[in-house]
Amino acid sequence: MITAGAVAFLLVASGALLWIAYRKLDGNIRTDSATDRLLAKLEADRPSRTAGAKGAENILLIGSDDRSGANGSYGGEAGTQRSDTTILLHLSADRRHATAVSVPRDVMVTVPACEKPDGTRSKPGLEQFNAAFETGGPACSIRTVEQLSGIRIDHYVILDFSGFKTMVDAIGGVEVCVPQPVHDKDAKLDLAAGRQTLHGEQALGYVRARETLGDGSDTQRMGRQQQFLAALVRKVESQGVLLNPTRLWPVLNAATSSVRADGGLSSLGALYDLTQDLRGVPAADVVLLTAPRRPYRYDSDRDEFVQPQTTQLFTALRDDRAVAVRPPGSAPSPSAGAGPGDAGAGPGAGSAEAAIAAASPSAGGSPTFEGRTADVDACAQH
What we know:
two-stranded antiparallel ribbon; 20% strand; nine-stranded mixed sheet; alpha/beta
């Protein structure tokens, strides 16, 4: 009787602790109800899902450089926000492939009319992509992506500077490869060359820096962000974070405290289901690339999409087809566009001529994109 009573007490106590933990994590999540309402008003104008893509999910990941609250130490005007990082994450219906496409912040696109924070409505016009977030917040960014791609955005997640640092620290840092020493006061970055495990502040500086890394272009910065995400995926998979409750708790606590999401993702159950979907995708089938771009013909400080590669890329995702990639900087093979199940596009960097040369699909196929898969260790390539 004593043993049975002790076991019963332990079961009840454990259940109570689990319930408290669940309530805490679930309560951490911030729902962006305002954006949900704006999108609901525009439902008739939003793209529908194609018949071949039922079960697939498209999530827009937005990195906000909001300078309010804890982000005030990064300078800039409090209350302003831009989206220097926007990634379209496509999860295939069978959950065997995931494709993350970086949308260049400076690419010139048609931004639709959007409702501003003060209730007025902006006029549609040709602007650089990150102006959409500044004008009308996430709803405007989502509508812009949907308009240019024809892809229905099912969910969205917004992460600011502080949230990013918290997430990186929760998994114990991320290893990157630094080709040469970096000293960037503005990015709060001081790194020696070689393999480095970056934690919060340094990790943020690494994915934000431009002038002191590479050629200073936003294209190379997006490539560096993709390498960082690939390393993060490998870290989580190799250490079994999603299968180890002791390691999973701080990650879940950080994730739920750091993001703002739509109503469909604003519960612990929904986020858990998403992590399980991602856990089933092998790192070799997680593809990261930049939407094909080149310098804008009227202003070299801006970008424009390379066609027809960009349309081919978005069509592949819209139809839930796997995207084939080749290493950045490598020459496209003559048969780069072979299989009908492959999707392709031009390079995410380099000259306009190289971009066009990479997009010569064979009959019934499409070109292979410049990009990377998450299983490739960037450090091993140096």
